Amino acid sequence: MSGGGEGDDSGSDGADSASAADLTHTDESGETQMVDVGDKADTARRAVARGTIRLQSATVDAVRENAIGKGGVLATARIGAIQAVKHTWETIPMCHQIPITNVDTDFALGDETVELTVAVETTGKTGCEMEALEGTTTGLNVVWDMVKSAEKDADGDYPETAIESVEVVEKTKRPLE
């Protein structure tokens, strides 16, 4: 289930066949609804998401050397990732607006990849997985935007460029002390 819009922390991946009564974002008549988390206890929560953008090796070298004409790719992507985390509730319809207490971003440059890991922390009634995913995908999109002139081929296409393997790699919650 997802971060700011979840209703259940059971860890179920939704693969089980559920009756309409089991769906947390649908009322009895099948209408979409936001889950009421008002009665849930506040807990300390953390979610970490990771994803990769595949680029040409020359592009990764230019990112590493801070030689992209638009400016600092990783610094700009970091700002974009953090901004996306803070605005997830505005772009994912069933997410609650949650108090973000911390965002960490980490970039790892490979030969033909840039990997971004985004860790989000909150104290509240619902998780922050969607915020971590939103930060990761937006951060990677910013990398793409910053390097697109280096990635384009003669036809203006991006045959080498792809965002891949975006996933939640950690989700924890603990009672407040």
UniProtKB/TrEMBL annotation:
<keyword id="KW-0501">Molybdenum cofactor biosynthesis</keyword>
<feature type="active site">
    <location>
        <position position="145"/>
    </location>
</feature>
<feature type="compositionally biased region" description="Acidic residues">
    <location>
        <begin position="1"/>
        <end position="11"/>
    </location>
</feature>
<dbReference type="InterPro" id="IPR023045">
    <property type="entry name" value="MoaC"/>
</dbReference>
<dbReference type="InterPro" id="IPR036522">
    <property type="entry name" value="MoaC_sf"/>
</dbReference>
<dbReference type="GO" id="GO:0006777">
    <property type="term" value="P:Mo-molybdopterin cofactor biosynthetic process"/>
</dbReference>
<feature type="compositionally biased region" description="Low complexity">
    <location>
        <begin position="12"/>
        <end position="22"/>
    </location>
</feature>
<comment type="subunit">
    <text>Homohexamer; trimer of dimers.</text>
</comment>
<keyword id="KW-0456">Lyase</keyword>
<feature type="binding site">
    <location>
        <begin position="130"/>
        <end position="131"/>
    </location>
    <ligand>
        <name>substrate</name>
    </ligand>
</feature>
<protein>
    <recommendedName>
        <fullName>Probable cyclic pyranopterin monophosphate synthase</fullName>
        <ecNumber>4.6.1.17</ecNumber>
    </recommendedName>
</protein>
<dbReference type="Pfam" id="PF01967">
    <property type="entry name" value="MoaC"/>
</dbReference>
<comment type="similarity">
    <text>Belongs to the MoaC family.</text>
</comment>
<comment type="function">
    <text>Catalyzes the conversion of (8S)-3',8-cyclo-7,8-dihydroguanosine 5'-triphosphate to cyclic pyranopterin monophosphate (cPMP).</text>
</comment>
<feature type="region of interest" description="Disordered">
    <location>
        <begin position="1"/>
        <end position="40"/>
    </location>
</feature>
<dbReference type="InterPro" id="IPR002820">
    <property type="entry name" value="Mopterin_CF_biosynth-C_dom"/>
</dbReference>
<feature type="domain" description="Molybdopterin cofactor biosynthesis C (MoaC)">
    <location>
        <begin position="34"/>
        <end position="173"/>
    </location>
</feature>
<dbReference type="InterPro" id="IPR023047">
    <property type="entry name" value="Mo_CF_biosynth-C_arc"/>
</dbReference>
<feature type="binding site">
    <location>
        <begin position="94"/>
        <end position="96"/>
    </location>
    <ligand>
        <name>substrate</name>
    </ligand>
</feature>
<dbReference type="GO" id="GO:0061799">
    <property type="term" value="F:cyclic pyranopterin monophosphate synthase activity"/>
</dbReference>
<comment type="pathway">
    <text>Cofactor biosynthesis; molybdopterin biosynthesis.</text>
</comment>
